[in-house]
């Protein structure tokens, strides 16, 4: 069941949007997918091997960096000056075949008027491979990945500003779709319409507890638990 607001309000609010911006992980594919757990496990393995830690200690440090720095990679760069290219190649070297193509989502995205872009804390290669597996890669003009923001992740305002500049995006005419609520603060402050994409009630959700949250803060304009239906409703 969609959690989107009444369609008349949505149609009115999105009438001026000509740039549609989507997070990748747990947004363009649902949080019950096994892709993120695979990446998460490889991050732990990377840290354990690099630092000589047992799995439990590596994972605890990994989650600390993620919470404090926005990504584990940002923490590793800050503390150990790791090679980000090596890290990203290792952690995103996963099997994506468990993710089914989504022709309904593809049709809904394709029908949106204007430009479509991906904005992700993952790597460019990961975004392209995942979008290709979903069958939506040809629909996007480009992808702003973590390397394009000099490895400074969302939710930092500077990352969104770099994105706006790189792709000539007018935030007042753009909408952002994202699964992590605090990653929508800077887009909303910049003038974007914001849509929080949540899992369906009772669905498996591999995100961290602090990423979920039950309350909808003022910087979230719309909420949906079905991205495909939400986008399709905008075109009625």
From TrEMBL:
InterPro entries: HAD-like_sf, HAD-SF_hydro_IA, HAD_sf, Pyr-5-nucltdase. Transmembrane segments: none annotated. Coiled coil: none annotated. NCBIfam families: HAD-SF-IA-v3, Pyr-5-nucltdase. This is Pyrimidine 5'-nucleotidase.
């Amino acid at each position: 069941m969609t959690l989107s607001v009444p369609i008349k309000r949505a149609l009115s609010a999105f009438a001026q949007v000509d740039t549609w911006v989507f997070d990748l992980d747990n947004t363009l594919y649902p949080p019950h997918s096994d892709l993120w757990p695979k990446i998460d496990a490889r991050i732990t393995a990377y840290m354990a091997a690099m630092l000589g830690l047992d799995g439990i200690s590596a994972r605890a440090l990994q989650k600390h960096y993620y919470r404090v720095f926005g990504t584990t990679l940002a923490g590793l760069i800050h503390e150990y000056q790791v090679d980000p290219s090596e890290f990203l190649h290792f952690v995103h070297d996963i099997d994506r075949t468990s993710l089914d193509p989504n022709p309904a989502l593809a049709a809904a995205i394709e029908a949106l008027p204007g430009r479509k872009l991906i904005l992700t804390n993952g790597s460019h290669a990961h975004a392209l491979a995942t979008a290709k597996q979903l069958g939506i890669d040809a629909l996007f003009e480009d992808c702003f990945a973590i390397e394009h923001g000099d490895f400074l992740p969302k939710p930092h305002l500077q990352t969104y500003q770099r994105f706006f500049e790189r792709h000539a995006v007018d935030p007042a005419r753009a909408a952002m779709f994202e699964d992590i609520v605090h990653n929508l603060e800077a887009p909303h402050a910049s003038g974007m319409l914001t849509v929080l994409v949540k899992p369906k009630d009772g669905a498996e959700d591999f995100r961290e507890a602090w990423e979920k949250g039950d309350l909808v803060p003022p910087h979230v304009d719309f909420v949906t638990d079905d991205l495909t239906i939400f986008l399709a409703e905008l075109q009625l």
